[in-house]
Amino acid sequence: MEKDSRIFVACHETMIGAAILRRLRVDDFGNVLTIPISSGDLTDQKMVAKFFMEERPEYVFLPSAKVGGILANSRYPAEFIYTNIQSQTNVVHAAWRAGVKKLLFFASSCVYPKSCPQPMRENSLLTGKLEPTNEPYAIAKIAGIEMCQSYNRQYSANFISVVPADVYGPADDFNPETGHVLAALIAKTHRAKTLREPEVVVWGTGSPRRECLHVDDLADACLFLMNSYDSPELINIGSGEDIPISEMAKLIVRIAGFEGKLVFDHSKPDGMPRKLLDTTRLKALGWSPKISLEDGIRKTYEWFTLHGTERKTHSAESTGRIGSASVGHAP
Ligand code: GFB
């Protein structure tokens, strides 16, 4: 990507989209496009096709249109499969028709089978049954990977797919009902501390392990891959370390300075027992993460105490080209 390349960040109001925009701004990319509406509207095929034909982006980042934690995935399976399949299909097809030079599609670690050998290598895709709590979302993501690979094969496109570990950071979904574990536990712990409640409830047994990746590390890896990786093969992006949920909860409690106790609610699902990504492929290219889990949680806790459950939706600046006088600002 050149500094004046036309770069489209889809779903720019999501945590990942916002982090990519932030990073592009820091790196002085001056011609960045966003669609001035909520990501749900990427389900509108005509609008997406028109946007691509008129704006002619050269590079595209395509994060998920709809994400959520284990409970949201179980409660809203239809929304997860519909919104993601429809949005990604519209964008990938329109990108090909508009002659986009390169597209980066965000898959998810839930694309790998439930009983996948750990750490999970890229060639484990489609080798076994998926974890049932997020199967609709995982199937949408697998369809996206397959679509990118098919367009590469048939049309010589350059559409790459990355598999991030569980991402967290500023502008995450801190709603305890719908968010992922780290953000949910930050919100619950802060609330308990502020209201002087005696305990924080942690879902499940606490024994599943999760690999967490700060969203700024993810953005860094994605810019790196946009400039250096041209293979149709999947590539994992992880921190290289996982931790039991019980330990994650203790770390958050320590950082927040909460003095009550942790209680485990066994009626809630555990999901995948472990999801550690094998990052050999990415390391061999020369990329490694920079933000430790402890630092990342500290920063995220700090962000949460300043912003609360506010999502950075950028409605006021939803028009788009960073650096252009006529339009809005990156987050
Ligand atoms: O992050 P999470 O919601 O989703 O849950 P997954 C991870 C683990 O943390 C599970 C436990 O074992 C949860 O039971 N947990 C403990 C909690 N306390 C909490 C809490 O307060 N909130 C939440 N949410 N979890 C998601 C998939 O799986 O990972 C998505 O559903 C996607 O499709 C995403 O792949 C990356 O890590 O299990």
Folded structure, characterized:
The protein has 331 residues and is of the alpha/beta class. The chain contains 10 helices and 12 strands. The strands form 4 sheets. The protein has a 6-stranded parallel sheet, with helices on both faces. Strand 4, helix 5 (135-155) and strand 5 (159-164) form a beta-alpha-beta unit. Helix 4 (77-97) runs parallel beside helix 5. The longest helix has 21 residues, at 77-97. The two termini are 21 Å apart.
The first-level CATH class of the domain at 7-168 and 212-241 and 275-291 and 312-329 is given as Alpha Beta
CATH superfamily of the domain at 7-168 and 212-241 and 275-291 and 312-329: NAD(P)-binding Rossmann-like Domain
Assess the beta-strand content as a share of residues.
Answer: 5-15%
Going by helix content, strand content and strand pairing, the class is: alpha/beta
**Distinct small-molecule ligands in the complex:** guanosine-5'-diphosphate-beta-L-fucopyranose
Morphology = globular
How many β-strand stretches? 12
Multimeric status of the protein: single chain
Q: How are the strands ordered across the major sheet?
A: 2-1-3-4-5-10
Mean pLDDT: 92
The CATH topology of the domain at 7-168 and 212-241 and 275-291 and 312-329 comes to: Rossmann fold
Largest sheet geometry = 6 strands, parallel
| Low-pLDDT residue intervals, each spanning 5 or more residues | 312-331
Radius of gyration, in angstroms, nearest whole number = 19 Å
Helix content: 25-40%
CA(first)-CA(last) distance: 21 Å
CATH-scheme architecture of the domain at 7-168 and 212-241 and 275-291 and 312-329: 3-Layer(aba) Sandwich
Number of helices: 10
